[in-house]
């Protein structure tokens, strides 16, 4: 076993971690070197699982359908829909010259009527249907929803072809992605009127469309309709439901659906557990994610690289880099070669833990192992340096991002802006904002919040208030609770308690619920004034509002104490809160 070892960056002594990057070459050579005159049963089975495609150089190649990677040419993050025989989401369909022409026509055409006229004029041939469907699938892989609608509605309303379930599913998917629920529903009704039998993918796509639009009660209606028609929801349907709930950040509902799956004895699979690991991870419950992972192994369900990456991400969000390392090593021992997503997750763990050099080492190691960093890799490294206050290093990584030919996105600029804001370099922040406008990008709420923070840290309250007023007036991106958190924190630190309370009330007036950061910043303002009684009053308001304290809240409360009696009182209150708090994330 070939190994590449690298020490983890950490100021304290702890075990080194190892990257098991290569497979046992001798073992593979021995297997492939065994020559027999006839194929055994297992060999015939393996050959049956092979698929074929033509690469960009015109060379015929094969792939194992059961081991499709997440790289270009493989299943996209391992979560693809299967559209009929031979169409695997993520594997680019082979387009004939005619299909290439149709694809170019549809992509460039802006007038639907003219595109339809051009499609009408195509000579009918025995392979025209395959070309049309290949084009539609290719457009879906490119996430081009409008052209998909153009092609599929031409099939549905204009052509002489009789649409099949693939056509209907693609239309439901496209309308669902565009959040045009009424049109997605009308396509479903047309499907039923055409006596076309909906598949589990049809129901799954409807579920995801409703979840993306926040229509959870209508998503439940899909499940009810299936059960009324005597169709028990399968793992595919429930997984689509969980995926939609995950993206909609409906954690409690996702846990409820997962419990229902187990109660109904629906056969869970690797994707189910991966989704639940992500659900708990995004809810900042990494130990619950680990519990799901252990439950998965206990029943003999084999995790894939997506599962391991999800678990690494769960620990990364909390900055638990040692636990993330353990999972990363276990992933390699299980025979999975780390891809860019896995490396990025481990980099994020170091970033959140405050070890930018550790993230940099992983970045270098990724390049050394032949895994090409993507835009997210550079963004994580910029964020790692920015969190540590190393704005020059963050700037250098941002410039390298552009040098390698990757176009910075809004998030790239926002992370750079945050790095300079933390160092108090307001002039550079303003330059980054100017670059954003020059690039044709409209600053989003996160970028504007970073600019607000820069002005606040520099004491330029007039500029901060002017920008906040512009956001509130609709001139730019709408403010969120993070916007008001900046205002509450800046005013509180400056001692302007009246302005701080006004900002707090303004957030409530906009219907934005205060989070733990809002409440803690507000308590901190009174703690600096040693107003112990007022701190307890705000703390009681926080609890009554259903927001539970974290370690930062306890630290701020203790800072308000001026004698031992108050310290004991605060300690007892915080302990009782955590003891009585009931978690929603039971398994």
UniProtKB/TrEMBL annotation:
Key words of the record: Repeat, Transit peptide
Keyword Repeat: yes
Gene3D superfamilies to which the protein is assigned, alphabetical: Tetratricopeptide repeat domain
PPR repeats: 164-198, 199-233, 234-268, 269-303, 304-338, 339-373, 374-408, 409-443, 480-514, 515-549
The keyword Repeat is assigned to this record: yes
Signal peptide: none
Protein name per the record: PROP1-like PPR domain-containing protein
Upper lineage: Eukaryota, Viridiplantae, Streptophyta, Embryophyta, Tracheophyta
